[in-house]
Amino acid sequence: MDATRQAASAPGRTRRRRGTARSAGVALGAFAAVRGGGALVVALGAWWAGKDPVKVLGGSWDSFWYLSIAARGYGRTQMWPASDSIQSDYAFFPLYPLLVDLTGGGPVAGLVVSWTAAAAAAVGVYRIGELLLGARAGVLLVALWASLPHAVVLGLAYTEPLLCALAAWSLYALLRGRWLWVASLAALAGLTRPTGIAVAAAVTVVALRELLVRGNRAPAVWAAGLLAPAGWASYVMAVGAHRHDPLGYFTVQRQWGSRFDFGGGTLETVWKALSGGPVTLPVTVTLAVLAAAGLLAVAAVLDRTPLPLLVYTATLLVITFGGAGFFESKPRFLLPAFPLLLPVAAAMARARPRTAVAVTAGLAGLSWGYGAYLLLIATVPP
Hints:
globular; mainly alpha
């Protein structure tokens, strides 16, 4: 009897897998359409301005530092006496430059790594949306994420695509209870960007809940809880050892002008903007994104978003709101916070398809225009 039931259920499982694969393909296609359109707009704008599109996409701003590390290793420092700024490449985590080096080095290799990671991230974001809200909402979640104002960064030689991929799949594995995958992906996320610690925070909190509340003492849970922060901690300690200062990494960040001041710098900039000070377009967009992120965080709590996603997103919000320096880049720092879009995706999934398509298309168009502005006109890093 059991064998008969298993045989009968096998075709059903096969159909479900095929349906999931088709929906994931639709999500990936939507992501490729939105971000491919954005890359095309940037490329056309670069050609019109007499610039090399590959250098614009693969060698702008922080991309220069990543490509330099991939080509020559660490050790580059730039000093700016006028502002007392000392910029050391030890501020940048090593996994992305390593992958670029393994891919051949240079802007094209940087873009190959980023675009591959972005595609993997899109599928991971879809799988989380599908798991929690269903296939339609999962596709919309990906489309919304690809249409964010700073989503142009997902097509640059930057680390955000790689972090988003590792974070999405680590969180998906965590929601499914696949602890060994969780441990490996979280450790790699910690080697990608400083904000990779958000993935480790989510894993550690959930592991503690399993151990202390649910009594799950499985070795895999212990391993995930202990190994998740290992990537981030190992790089921070390595920089400290190199500089003969346990807090050496944070000194490097402070010399760049980046530090954690519990939101003082953010509030100061917001106050200046709201009290009539000069406001540029990037500052205006940043203010809007931060306000939207705060509202969406409240919505996520009210919607009872699963604990791993809440901890992950809350950690990113604390780092972003609490950090001083590079105010206009804060929307980029929040790109990996895709769980904030879950309530919006759920609402759009309940709307008529025509409405969902129109909203997504409008947001994508705005994202294309703003992305081109950031790379071709703006004088601040994206």
